[in-house]
Fold each of these.
Amino acid sequence: MDTTRQDFIVGLFIVGAIAVVVGALLATSGWGERRYDLYLRTASAEGLTTDSKVLLQGLEVGRVASVSPRVDSMTRTITFVAKLSLIGRFKSGATLQLPTGTRGQLEPASQISQTVLIRLVLPDSNARTGRLLAVGDTIDSDRKASVVEQVAEVAQHLSKEVEDVLHQTNETLQHVDGILATANGMLQDVRPSIDSTLANVSATMNRVTKLVQRLDPGLADSVSTALALSNRVLRRVDSLAARASEMTEENRTDVRTAVANLTQLTRQLNHLAEEISRRPYRALTGVKPLPAASDTTSPRAGTADSTRP
């Protein structure tokens, strides 16, 4: 009797264990759920397995049943088609109906794993046509880059920007080098004229100084003022010559104008000194200034000055 009772308890325990296992299998196998198949087209099957999850707004709504390649007969390119087993009706009785325009996005399942999951992305409400996907329809997909790929893309972009900046800097340096070479050539052309003008001005100032020493003190003060002004002009020109290495092509006209003005000043001072030394009374009556340099080519003008009483 005791043996029979013991066998009964053992048999009851085994039946209970089998019932628990069967219940767990039924709970995990989607018993009571209605499923239907959709197909997902992807350019690469990397990380995609037959058990990859399919999510809709964070909720798992299916799994990948199979992955098979497809070869385009025209272009001979290879694509992959994944068969998605989706829940059509949940245990609560709610149905899952996807609108046309739904696409799949392949994302890394985790940062340390190469497997991917499929996230269903619904179209915007404005782009919906009201039609629903039917069983066996195919949707398109794209792949979201991983964090490592995004960092690599950013690094490549920064490297390209740095390369562009270095290229622009090199072009700028070459342009500056060309400007400096042009300025150096311009200074070499202008320097002889400046040196000659300064030498003429210095000689003229010496002559005027000797003449002033022979004139009336009142007149000497006026001439001294003119000489002081001339000295300031000379110091200005000397400063300009000292900094001539900093001039660029656009300053050539200003330098030539300054040289022409100094040349005209030298001619006028030479004429004043010559007239006063030949006729001292001109210091009181005045000396007629020379015409502009463009008018000195007229022989009659030169003769009229030389014969003036």
Amino acid sequence: MKISCHLPILFLLSTLLSAQTPGSSAPSPNGVPAPIKQAQQLNSEGRQDDALAILNQVLAADPKNYEANLMAVVVLDLKGDYAKAHTYLPKAVELAPPDRRVQALRTAAISYTFSCDLQQVSAYEQQAYEIQLQEQKLSDAAATANELARIALECGDTPGASKWYQTGHQTAMRIPNLSEADRDLWNFRLQSAKARIAARQSQPVEANNDVAAAKAILDKGKIPDQQRFYPYLAGYVAFYSGEYKTAIEQLQKADQKDPFILVLLAQSYQKIGNQSEAVNYYQQVLTINSHNPTNAFARPLAKKRLGMGN
């Protein structure tokens, strides 16, 4: 969910295919080998089988290729082949250069999010968190703690979610010379988290009070870029409070490229008996090929509701 943290985009996908052949290891202009760029592009287009074919060629020639191992995890997760994806994870983490180890760990955590394996998610996220703490990257560490909290929440562990959201906030408060705007940002994130947790615990009065408190922070005007997340928060709380028409009204104002927002809209339409709109939104989810927590929550559910298995 977008409120909890700004998650780094793990794979920036090129809009153009390289002219290199799949077996070539020549780098593209941004330093990523051409076949990996090709696999990324194909994956972004929803052509996971074609992307995997290229990656298999790369790995046949070089089984220790870090980018190919990590990208294979991404592609297989989006295909729904989680068991096979996880066979690439140990090598990807092992082969990660020091400056990309956190990337590998968080990719591994997201991989296990698709199946809500919280034990594995926590193991990888906490490693990433500890590395960021040791490197004094407190903002990044706070974001990782929030990411783990959000995964715990959507996988049904509200105590774990509460613990890690608090950890994220406390970590952020340790940032030297924290500006008033940044303090408002982290307070808004924590207040938003409390609202969502209360909603999931069937405490609508507390949830709505927390939404109001989050809005009060926004109304101070120090973090205008966060205003766009309010409809998501209000829609989320309305959905879990059983107010499905209100949820739809709010969620339609939120980011329509966020697969988790789309899947909440689909479920809301299902709840009011509008199956055609529900199907429409579930289908939209499957057009998104990102590898992040929002898609890890949304994609398996959309496939299930459309009768497609994982």
Amino acid sequence: MIDIVCIGEAMVEFNQTRPGEPNYLQGFGGDTSNVAIAAARSGARAAYVTRVGDDEFGRLLIGLWQHENVDVRAVAVEPGAHTGVYFVRHTGQIHVFDYLRAGSAASRMRPDGLPITLIRDAKHVHASGISMAISSSAADSVLAAFDTAQSAGAKVSFDANLRLRLWPLPRARALIGEAAGMADYFFPSIEDARALSGLEEPRAILDWAHRLGAKVVFLKLGAEGAIASDGARSDPIAALKVDAVDTTGAGDCFCGAALARLAAGDSIWDAARYANAAAALATTGFGAVAPMPSVEAVRRVMRAIY
């Protein structure tokens, strides 16, 4: 059985290593791909559902997943479409993203192309707001995958990951709200939750998320840590102090690490503490994938803290 099936778009990343200079480090990104890799590095059996172009970038991504022990049986090669690319530029503490993804292979996902057996056999099925925003057929695919997962008894996991470059806020609110309402585990960032809910305070945001229908909420607070809530109990998870150089992919690392520990049988509170440590370590190097920590690295940090 697969522990975690992730659905969405992966991209090749070019990350600026020094602000203001034309030097870029080639890596990999795409939020749900990052989640699958983070989960695999934390010991879970992960699989990815996507489409890539019949190009060198697509082949690089398939090679990455194979190297990271992510199951690629549901990765389809789409002739006539390209693999997405993005650039990360850094200005002080701010990182700016530029995307070349319109018409990408992943945006051609359709419900009738979903790997139904793989989804039914999974413990957890994960997608994000970006997975839905890249096209109408991709949004339909995510909701169909969640329906299939629920009918088979799998847990549904969803990260809001709001990107207003991809769709208008009213549509994002409607579809993210629908997906979050199906979620056993909902992973919004505080910034996304504020934009989607119109609320400011974390307690009010947690209540909003539970009203949508989300059973467990992991509210990601960035440098301030996280809060885990099951509706009756909410626990703050204090931030770890690290020498952060790049926060790209840290929230995705949190999701993947938490799902890995949940799949292993941890409580939501223990999973949140582990994920918080993993996400902090993921900020200590450049790129979305390369700095993601191993189980051993996370455990060392946790032993020193807890």
